[in-house]
Structure prediction request, 122 residues.
Amino acid sequence: MKNILLVAVCLIVACSSTPELKEGHWTGHLTPMNHPEMSIPVSYEVAYTENGLDINIIGSDGISASAQNPHIERDTLFFMFNEPEEQVTLECELARNNASGFSGECTDSSGKWAQFTMVSPD
Prediction:
């Protein structure tokens, strides 16, 4: 009986633990709401530090922005970053779309958004 209880507790802890992102160089695209025909390459450097999850977003021009407060809740990745060209803060909510990627919108305070995708290094 003790073994069954121990297995049940381990399964509950495993199921409720936060899924981690694979460290490394993720790829993806962004599509601005005002130009749905565009698909601009973007990449992400994902790492874990003593402070937790760290994501650096790199635009097609090589300019990077650090994600603020990146975290995963269930199957959704949340973060904010200061968009360097427009000088606005974007709030992002990307849902897991399969075993190796995320997609969703990053929105500014006026409601303008861009669709972002992230694909794991695998």
About this structure: The beta strands are 24-32, 40-49, 52-59, 64-66, 68-73, 76-83, 88-98, 101-107, 113-119. The chain is about 10% helix and 55% strand.
